[in-house]
Design goal:
The protein has helices at about 40-45, 65-70, 70-80, 95-105, 175-180, 200-210, 230-235; strands spanning about 5-10, 20-25, 35, 55-60, 85-90, 115-120, 130, 135-140, 150-155, 160-165, 185-190, 215-220, 240-245, 250. The protein has about 250 residues and is an alpha/beta fold. It has a single domain (about 5-250), classed as Metallo-beta-lactamase, Chain A (4-Layer Sandwich). The longest helix has 13 residues, at about 95-105. The protein is globular. It starts with a strand and ends with a strand.
Length: about 250
């Protein structure tokens, strides 16, 4: 079975036990796929028994620090460890352009014997192809955040199961096709307001799209007790609700 491993579950203000939201997709045949890049994903991936050059693909959902700030350190770590395998990045033009500019600011062209890195632009439209390998078919929808941002619809090609990830968004019509009939709906829960959703709104979306299960992620942890978030979501959704924690693993 394919797995999603939560490497970070917090919203923008993380703490000692909750890194910023990012996760790893592990299939049966292809190299793992990293979605967003928290503070030190390579260290966490190592703890999963995956080699330093095991990840082949990285999807960046948008260019906010809590989603991309780990990229320079990760690339430098990989270089220092002697990686030679290619690494592929995927995201909207807005994000890919700025990520390249970020690495140019670090003069990465001066790092000798650096491994190949490519940037693949995803079109900013509904049902836009992101990547496909032996395990997963991943499509993107623009969602409603402060800057151009994508949510992901991830199909397990072996089981046919669907994992939908909203990323950072307030309620929007795009969530219907993105999340429709998802076996796992991984929904942000940073709080009601511009560019974000509350746990209750996550529950409302899960009910609207007929999701089979709901996983809350990207929630507040700083001086905040997240335990009420699950019952809040259950006020609007009758299915199973899980609060994601760092290092959780789920099959789908």
């Amino acid at each position: 079975m394919a797995r999603i491993v939560i490497l970070g579950s917090a919203a923008v203000v993380s703490d000692a036990t909750h890194d910023n939201t990012h996760f790893l997709l592990i299939g049966e045949h292809s190299t793992p796929v990293l979605v967003d890049c928290g503070s030190n994903p390579l260290g966490k991936i190592k703890n999963l028994g995956i080699s330093d050059d095991g990840v082949g693909d990285v999807i960046l959902t948008h260019f906010h620090p809590d989603h991309v700030s780990g990229v320079p350190n990760m690339l430098m770590h990989m270089w220092q460890l002697g990686r030679q395998a290619p690494l592929r990045f995927y995201g909207l033009h807005h994000c890919m352009n700025r990520t390249e500019d970020l690495m140019n600011a670090f003069l990465w062209e001066t790092w000798p014997d650096f491994f190949p890195v490519t940037f693949h632009r995803v079109r900013e439209r509904g049902n836009a192809p992101v990547l496909e390998n032996e395990d997963f078919r991943i499509m993107a929808w623009p969602v409603k955040h402060f800057i151009p941002t994508i949510g992901l619809r991830i199909e397990n090609k072996i089981t046919g199961n669907i994992l939908a990830y909203t990323c950072d968004t307030e309620p929007t019509d795009a969530l219907q096709p993105l999340c429709q009939d998802a076996d796992m709906l991984v929904h942000e829960a940073a709080g009601k307001g511009i560019g974000h959703s509350s746990p209750r709104q996550a529950g409302e979306t899960a009910t609207l799209v007929g999701a089979k299960s709901l996983y809350l992620i990207h929630y507040q942890v700083w001086n905040t007790d997240p335990t009420p978030f699950v019952p809040e979501a259950q006020e609007a959704y009758d299915g199973p609700v899980t609060l994601c924690e760092d290092y959780d693993e789920y099959e789908f």
